[in-house]
Design a protein that fits this description.
2 copies of one chain form a homodimer.
Chain A: H1 22-31, H2 35-43, E1 50-51, H3 52-59, H4 63-75, E2 79-84, E3 87-92, H5 94-108
Antiparallel strand pairs in A: 1-3, 2-3
Chain A binds a DNA duplex through helix 4.
Chain lengths: 117, 117
DNA sequence: TTCGTGAATCGTCGATAAGCGATAGGGACC
DNA sequence: GGTCCCTATCGCTTATCGACGATTCACGAA
């Protein structure tokens, strides 16, 4: 299996994700609020683009269900998709998860002031 | 207003939270998947115990709704409650949020291996 | 143009979540 | 006991989620 013609995982050129407000934190939390979606994100730890069919095979769920989970992750900007001919490649937006982590850290740290809208 | 007879925010003596599996990550994500609950956690950044009534006044939601949100946070072990006479004090379980953050970091880091059940 | 393949969307269903008012329970205090 | 205060729980309605099969759409290849 070769990944030669696949797009890269770089986030360069993607639109800026929304700033970390209370609503945005909740949005990402919701995207990560289902075991299947956590599992999908964990699959993406290995940094190369993933096809939908690969994920379906890993997760033991119907293709339409996986597609729906990917849509939720995509709309929360946790992953991004790029078309390559007939198929879609998915990659993590690591920067978004990093910002989420930072926000949760600030949320629970006692000595940093954070003004959340 | 005095906090003199309030219990402390220490987590000492509390039962160990569940280990960080995929299901546990999703559970905490779900607890943080609502703006009101993120807001509540953010209130708790200031490290002293909070009464339910204080939170109600901050959040502009019915007392029963806040009580329900607190139940969800409590069952996910994101906060803990202690009774003091007629009232209940709530505090953050910072250690749980720290572990959650660590799990999300590992989830998205490309070089750490994590075996999630 | 037609066919095949991979992925998204639609339609439907049961289950779960979110919100509120009303009610119940548990202390403290008289 | 009775009363007040604070919080949890109940009962209800509406909204959203999660899952699936069926269908549609987009693209490349024949």
């Amino acid at each position: 299996m070769t990944f030669a013609p696949t797009p890269s995982c770089t986030e360069a050129g993607l639109p800026e994700p929304a700033p970390m407000t209370v609503a945005r934190i909740a949005e990402i939390g919701k995207a990560l609020a289902h075991p299947a979606r956590v599992r999908i994100v964990n699959l993406f730890r290995i940094c190369h683009p993933h096809k939908v069919q690969d994920i379906v095979e890993e997760c033991d769920l119907a293709q339409s269900t996986i597609s729906e989970h990917l849509r939720i992750l995509r709309e929360a900007d946790v992953v991004f998709a790029s078309r390559d001919g007939p198929r879609t490649w998915y990659c993590l937006r690591r920067s978004v998860l990093r910002e989420y982590v930072k926000a949760i850290e600030e949320l629970q740290s006692t000595d940093e002031l954070l003004l959340l809208a």
